[in-house]
Design a protein that fits this description.
Strand order of the largest sheet: 1-2-6-5-4-3-7-8-9
Number of domains: 3
Strand content: 5-15%
Order of helices and strands: HHHHHHEEEHEHEHEHEHEHEHEEHEHHEE
Radius of gyration: 24 Å
Structural class: alpha/beta
Largest sheet: 9 strands, mixed
Number of helices: 16
Distance between the termini: 68 Å
């Protein structure tokens, strides 16, 4: 197929997949040659080499693109996986991502989420603690209920907890991959990926078949932070991948939050360093909302309650332990966890788990003195 016979989207697909040409160079080429990717592929080498950053190797790759990329096979894979390829001018391309220094010229997308709702990134360590996982799940659930799209990288640990928290809340979440959209990494997250695509989206700037490596993960991280208004780091050591995302967030002018942890945990050392360097300390979702300073007209629409979820001012789908704990806090009672345990007959672990879930669902409120009260009348 000649360059002249290509559609604009096909030409974008080709440019995006060619080796050794970064997004900065691709965007320079598009700007210099009028924005049409077909023109880039059809332009003679001498003119290409006049663009800053383009030398003989890149000019040769563009001129001989058929030797580097099988367009027909890629389109067959798009059809087989149900993915589409979105470009910067598409309304569904994340708006904030267009503003960064090196936006991808295109993204493979699994799912139909249109990224109209503002996004918040939640990232952190793969080797995490139960505290970190619970915090990520809680924050993601609360943000998803408020209408935000929770963005992360589908990795083990904090990323997985963030995606799951958003899904459990009935909200939207997006995963950005550091590999091709046809490669499931880590493999145990296949089921999670499928759940994400049902109401959210999975994104990748890499062509099918591209394996993850150190470079691709760093490129993925700039997308995670770049498409979001704020990035929250929950547990990271000082050399963790989440610190790369945090650095990108700072360079991109995005808000950066870090959750403190135990001083003897290496997985919290990175968060503490971020806080020392100026990141906003975050202990609850209200910290983020206060920084964003949303007016009601600009805040995303909250997720609607599921049918029959609330009846007579009380959810009908609570677990038995949650029902017993919530009953103890009826009539305006304000109780410490041990008092709740004494009244409900539950052990400390069951009380703690029930209170955490009720607090995530905003059915109870933890006071500054450590006691709890019901949020509903």
């Amino acid at each position: 197929m000649s360059s002249a016979a290509l559609t604009e989207r096909q030409a974008f697909l080709i440019l995006n997949a060619l080796p050794n040409i970064g997004p900065v160079t691709l965007n320079r080429l598009l700007t210099a040659l009028g924005g049409d990717p077909r023109t880039v592929l059809a332009t003679e080498r001498r003119r290409l080499e006049s663009v800053r950053g383009v030398g003989p190797v890149i000019a040769s790759t563009l001129a001989e693109w058929r030797a580097h990329f099988d367009l027909a096979r890629e389109e067959q894979r798009l059809a087989a996986t149900g993915a589409d390829f979105i470009v910067g001018k598409d309304p569904v391309y994340p708006k904030l991502l267009r503003e960064i220094h090196d936006p991808p010229i295109g993204l493979y997308r699994l799912g139909t989420h249109d990224f109209a709702a503002p996004g918040i990134a939640i990232v952190g360590s793969r080797r995490t603690t139960l505290y970190g996982q619970a915090t990520a799940r809680r924050f993601a659930g609360e943000l998803a209920r408020l209408g935000f799209c929770v963005v992360s990288g589908l990795a083990r640990g904090i990323d997985t907890a963030a995606h799951e928290g958003a899904l459990e809340a009935g909200g939207r979440t997006a995963a950005v991959l550091g590999c091709g959209a046809d490669i499931i990494y880590p493999p145990e997250n296949l089921g999670l990926l499928r759940r994400i695509t049902e109401g959210g989206a999975v994104l990748s700037e890499f062509p099918f078949g591209r394996r993850a490596d150190r470079q691709s993960f760093a490129m993925r991280n700039r997308i995670v932070s770049g498409m979001c208004q704020a990035t929250i780091v929950i547990e990271s050591d000082v050399d963790g991948g989440a610190m790369i995302t945090a650095r990108f967030a700072g360079e991109q002018g995005r808000m950066l939050f870090a959750v403190p942890g135990r001083i003897d945990q290496p997985t919290s050392a990175g968060c503490h360093q971020l806080i020392r360097d100026g990141a906003t300390l975050m202990t609850g979702v209200d910290d983020l909302l206060n920084e964003l300073s949303y007016l009601d007209g600009f805040r995303p629409a909250p997720v609607s309650a599921k049918p029959a979820e609330v009846a007579a001012g009380r959810p009908s789908n609570l677990k038995p332990d949650e029902e017993r704990v919530l009953a103890c806090l009826g009539g305006g009672a304000i109780l410490a966890p041990d008092a709740v345990g004494a009244q409900s007959g539950l052990g400390p672990a069951e009380v703690s788990a029930a209170l955490m879930m009720l607090e995530i669902r905003r059915l109870v409120v933890k006071r500054t003195d450590g006691r709890y009260e019901a949020a509903l009348g």
